[in-house]
Design brief:
Elements (H helix, E strand, L loop, with lengths): L4 E6 L3 H12 L4 E7 L2 H10 L10 E4 L8 H8 L4 H4 L3 E6 L4 H8 L4 E6 L7 H6 L2
Parallel strand pairs: 1-2, 1-3, 3-4, 4-5
Helix pairs in contact: 2-3
């Protein structure tokens, strides 16, 4: 049996978070879905769980176009976190941007598995989660 998967959604859009949470929650073996609406808040959350590996998200879906701290700025800080965390989490950029510059920039981060375009419903969630 597959292990339970914990998801972290980082998107400034409450609507997108709501929809994505609903889509993900239909999958089997999801243990927890946390939604956070800013990159800064997400970093604060991750820093509070650093000493609790059992609380690490297995998968992070990250929007890149966010006010305050963009997804790329989040990644710049995320990669400075301990490898125990960054090696555990699979990061997927989930963006409405179809700009090839964004996709190319995302590939520069070794922690990013893939760049997905919104909506999440267009992707095979089960396949993505089985990669984690």
């Amino acid at each position: 049996m597959a292990k339970d998967i914990s998801i972290l959604l980082i998107d400034d859009s409450e609507v997108d978070n709501f929809i994505n949470k609903a889509i993900i929650s239909k999958e089997d073996n999801i243990s927890k879905i946390t939604t956070i609406t800013s990159g800064q808040e997400a970093l604060e959350h991750l820093n509070t769980i650093l000493d609790s590996p059992e609380a690490y998200p297995d998968v992070i879906f990250l929007d890149i176009k966010m006010p305050g701290m963009s997804g790329f700025e989040f990644l710049d800080e995320y990669i400075k976190l301990p490898e125990t965390l960054t090696n555990h989490c699979k990061v997927y950029i989930l963006s409405s941007s179809i700009d090839t510059i964004d996709s190319t920039k995302g590939k520069e981060y070794h922690v990013v598995k893939k760049h997905l375009t919104k909506p999440l419903a267009h992707h095979q969630i089960g396949d993505l989660l089985s990669e984690s």
